[in-house]
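in:
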């Protein structure tokens, strides 16, 4: 008879792996769609290589990015895809915490919670 905990571990690994794959595929599709929008919008625009323009100010904040993405502005869609790509591993850590809590593995729950805290701290630029 197979060990129930190992079977559960395998299932959880499969679920987490599938979530990671799905998240990366979704992010890639969003970035690809934004790239196509970008090329269509700028098909006849001649680039000016003599001056550098950074990202537009509205993309520096989550609300601006979401507003631009849902308005189908190409830069907003690309930025949204990148944010989804960044969120995938963070979501994976959060799912792992839930899995460890369900299994009542308190040590791994605490360690994974610390990892999530460090990720969020780094992502927010140390402004927590």
């Amino acid at each position: 008879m197979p060990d129930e905990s190992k079977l559960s571990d395998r299932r959880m690994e499969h679920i987490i792996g599938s979530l990671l794959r799905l998240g990366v595929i979704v992010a890639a599709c969003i970035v690809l769609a934004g790239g196509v929008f970008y090329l269509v919008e700028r098909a006849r625009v001649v680039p000016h290589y003599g001056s550098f323009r950074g990202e537009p100010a509205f993309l520096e904040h989550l609300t601006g990015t979401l507003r631009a993405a849902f308005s189908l502005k190409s830069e907003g869609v690309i930025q949204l895809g990148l944010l989804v790509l960044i969120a995938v591993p963070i979501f994976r850590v959060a799912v792992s915490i839930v899995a460890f809590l369900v299994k009542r593995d308190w040590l791994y729950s605490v360690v994974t919670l610390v990892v999530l805290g460090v990720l969020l701290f780094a992502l927010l630029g140390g402004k927590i």
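note: The chain has one domain: 9-123.
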